[in-house]
Amino acid sequence: MNKTKGHFIGLVPLIIFLVLYMGVGLFSGSFDNMPLMVGILIATAVALSLNKPSERLSLNENIEIFCHGAGESTLVLMVLIFILAGAFYGVASGMHAVDSVVNLGLSILPSNMILPGLFLIGCLLSFSMGTSMGTVTALMPIAINIASKTGINVAFVSGIVVGGAMFGDNLSFISDTTIAATRTQEVQMKDKFKTNIIMVLPAVIVNLVLLLVQNPSISQSAANHSYSLVNLIPYVLVIVLSLVGMNVLPVMTIGVISGIIIGVIHGDFTLLKSLTVIHDGMKSMQDMALIALFVGGLVGLMHHLGGIDYLLDKLTSKAHSKKGAELSIAALVSFLDIATTNNTVSIITAGPIAKDIADEYGVSRKRVASILDVFSSAFNGLLPYAGQLLVAAGLAKVSPTDIMVYNWYSMLMIVSGLVFILIGDRKEKN
Fold first, then answer.
1. Is there a contact between 263 and 95 (Cβ–Cβ < 8 Å)?
2. Distances from the Cα of 284 to the Cαs of 87, 235, 290, 352, in angstroms?
3. CA 297, CA 364: separation in Å to the nearest integer?
4. Helix (H, G, I), strand (E, B) or coil at 220
5. CB within 8 A of 236, min separation 6: which ones?
6. I need a surface site. Which of 82, 151, 382, 398 has the fewest CB within 10 A?
7. pLDDT score for 77
8. What is the pLDDT of residue 234?
9. What are 3-20's pLDDT values in tens digits?
């Protein structure tokens, strides 16, 4: 099969972005000092100034290529989904659905199951919310309280919380990583979920067993954890409708509307105030939506400059099988996540490349979407400079690296993902 070798010059914008982002973060001591949007904007400016050795395009022509890449239909749809997911999260928080999920888990948690129970609550909450950061913020005060009452290392319980948070970040139907993985590979969420859950289930089981043998106990009172089953209706609707295969846009819309109705009936906000709640939720996803468009435009320029073909050629030069192709995809998204500390951005960036690799070697798109999500989420939960560990460490008043070594689930995700790739699935087809 003839393949285009591409040009290294097409990778220069990506290299500049990674060097800037990693360099500023490491030298300044905080990766917040180089916002992703600014880094991508600089890389885009560089890409607009470059040309392939064999041609010379004007700035206007390069801008046209950028706009075409940013306006790709999959990306525009992804932006709409991001905005609706933000609206859903805003409404769910405003109507106290998040509190109900946490308190429901705590009320049914046996005292001798506190550690595996804490992990399961994190899984349930993150799957319902679709955000690892929100899960860490909601559960860390509970984890710190457990540590103080039992004498368990606070870094240990913090690692459990972060692990549970990454479970939902990887699998939730409203998680931005799931949205990015499914849209870039053009597969349905339910299909990706079925493949993905098989991929990580061994990691969940092993993690639960490891936590169970620790077996500390603490007295819990169900009376201290009030919840409303009615408040869970929006989450149930989103999960059930997604599983039956309904399009994600109406699913998100139904979730938002149901949350507004319940919130108004319970007096959490008025119908007029709900508009502000929706808007605040949308604003929380605003940066991610813009980043998705900029990355799409940047990838379009890199593709035109030959960078994508060059990267594909190098990644697949030793990938002579489906397994080799899948390992290449896992390595690519992991590298990007380590560099950017953002699993969604790493998926958006790696997605088009991964799709080309999948088509080249006949890899199922469902497997590709799962691999992208699993490896990016796993590494994001293990980076001491990523948001999840930084927030947990700040609340627990310990070092992020102390927590990192106790996030067993993320480590097990990587192991389980590699086993999943090496075993393969000969029955699965595109």
1. yes
2. 9, 19, 12, 25
3. 26
4. coil
5. none
6. 151
7. 77
8. 87
9. 567 788 988 998 898 888
Instruction: Locate the domains of the chain by residue range.
Output: 78-285+319-423
pLDDT digits (tens, 9 = 90+) for 196-212: 999 999 999 999 999 98
pLDDT of 43 higher than 80 = yes
pLDDT of 64 higher than 90: yes
| Structure tokens that stand for 351 in this block | 């997605």
Query: Interior CA angle at 422 toward 420 and 5, to 5°?
Result: 110
Q: Which amino acid is at 177?
A: T
193 and 367 Cβ atoms separated by less than 8 Å: no
Half-sphere exposure for 118 (CA within 13 Å, toward CB)? 34
pTM over 0.90: no
Question: What pLDDT sits at residue 1?
Answer: 41
- Which pLDDT tens digit goes with each residue over 320-350? 788 888 998 999 899 888 867 778 888 988 8
Res 137 pLDDT > 50: yes
Please state whether 215 falls in left (phi above 0), alpha (psi between -120 and 50) or beta: left
CA proximity to 297, closest of 79, 78, 73, 66: 66
What phi, psi does 21 have (nearest 5°)? -65, -50
